[in-house]
Amino acid sequence: MTTTENIRKELQDLVDSKYQEFHSALVPGIGNILGVRIPQLRILAKEIAKRDNWRMFVEATDTKFYEETMLQGMVIGLAKMELDERMKHISMFVPRIDNWAVCDIFCGELKTAVKKGKATVWQFIQPYLISPKEFEIRFGIVMLFHYVDEEHIDALLAYADTFNHDAYYARMAMAWMISICFIKFPEKTMEYLKQSKLDNWTYNKSLQKTIESLRVDKETKDILRGMKRR
Question: Three-state DSSP class for 80?
Fold first, then answer.
């Protein structure tokens, strides 16, 4: 049996049929979901990351199930390696992303990589931010969540004003990013929204996601509701 086949067997022992039905509804269009909960995947990923053959697994192309791809991304984020090697594995993995869940979990697992090489990762993600491919650009945008800070906020809002993409999951990621910017930098983001060049759908979705936040006060939410484009 190959490394992937062995890990597939481990996954099949963790399958929850009720969760499979629930999670499949959250990730439409993906028909290869086994039904393994994310906390269990993380436990397994930590175990795989300690094995001598973890590289064989993350480089394998004989995956069949959604959870196998998710595991590959988690292991790339967890395994001990130098930043250069991690960037190599990230480059190989991104083209395999075909849904929002794998994309977002993967980006979250790269938090440590960003901390260790913030400037390097910043440069690395720039080409993805202009990709015509839906999940490549979503990867780039969700990675920007690690950069909502004083040093990068102006660059993030400037990028938002150049954003022009028709794909649903790219637009959703942009709206999500803007809402995070608003929570952390309300004054700057409010000024941006007042003169934003975003398309109406993404702009309104940005307002909606900000209004839904528990970290925005009622008065501000009322102002944002009045800024909706008709």
Answer: coil
